[in-house]
Amino acid sequence: MPELPEVETILRGISPHLIGQKVHAVHVRQSRLRWPVPDKLAQILTGQTIDAVKRRAKYLLLRTSAGSLMIHLGMSGSLRIVNDEIPPGKHDHVDICLDGLTLRFRDPRRFGSMFWLDPGSDSHPLLDKLGPEPFSGMFNGEYLYRITRKRRVAVKQLIMNSQVVAGVGNIYANEALFRAGIRPDRAAGRISRIRYENLAECIKKVLSDAIKQGGTTLRDFSGGHGQPGYFQQSLNVYGRGNQTCVVCLRPLKVIRLGQRSTVFCNRCQT
DNA sequence: AAATTCTCCTGAAGGC
DNA sequence: TGCCTTCAGGAGAATT
């Protein structure tokens, strides 16, 4: 599923094809995503020029002088630059047609969403509630330590809370906690300042490492083929339940935390 | 206020 | 081969 590194990689892949381009047509074949695609989307976006493409958390923003299209990929969404003669498939819900190329939104499970933002503000209720970007200076160990005093929620659920930090999903929460040597089910309020400093650095590092790999495994944005890789080869715990820990060779534990699959090493993570 | 549960959806995988 | 069940999960809304 697209997490922050995948969204960032998609952004870098599609931006060069979009910036400065005029939208000639918009086709909405399925408007029932997580929330309805705005009725006015085609009318308002057609004829506009895409001035910039930005990311906030896992949202992409396509900016025009008439406002911005805000896109979330949910867990099965993808954006691809295709030749406009390639016929849409079953789950290709929205096409944004440029000069000869089309930005195609596909989302089999339809957990994704699109909103229209009025010009200037880049403000939306869903954006305004988000916590700091993980790469920002605001996000650090001191911040995590400060907001977690007396909180008993599991630290993994804490860092997956988008109001705490934006864009950390299940894969990288598992991976960051393994790197930091912290049990995912440890109460957030029972973690020292120094361990939070380590955790914040591990979150930044695991995300930036994944973005670097995204450059190699997610590089094809033009063609209709190929599923994005999920960086399997560099994952230490996610998807490796009951396999051996890469450090101590003991079997990795699998538990559920907040309906999410959670994998960790009982020995390396305390 | 904080924490937990519910909800949307369909493809993949496993059992029989 | 094919049908059925189970699971996966982002994250806001609803509920406790």
Secondary structure tally, helices: 7
Instruction: Give the overall silhouette.
Output: elongated
The CATH architecture name of the largest domain reads: Alpha-Beta Barrel
Helix content: 25-40%
Beta-strand fraction estimate: 15-25%
Largest sheet: 4 strands, antiparallel
> Termini, distance in Å?
28 Å
Domain tally: 2
- Poorly predicted regions are 216-228
Description of the structure:
- With 270 residues, this protein is of the alpha+beta class.
- It folds into two domains: 4-128, N-terminal domain of MutM-like DNA repair proteins (Alpha-Beta Barrel), CATH 3.20.190.10; 141-264, Helicase, Ruva Protein, domain 3 (Orthogonal Bundle).
- Helices cover 27% and strands 20% of the residues.
- Strands 1-6-7-5 form a four-stranded antiparallel β-sheet. A four-stranded antiparallel β-sheet has the order 2-3-4-8, covered by helices on one side.
- A hairpin with a 3-residue loop joins β6 and β7 (101-106).
- The radius of gyration is 20 Å and the shape is elongated.
- The model is unreliable at 216-228 (pLDDT under 50).
- The structure holds a DNA duplex (16 and 16 nucleotides).
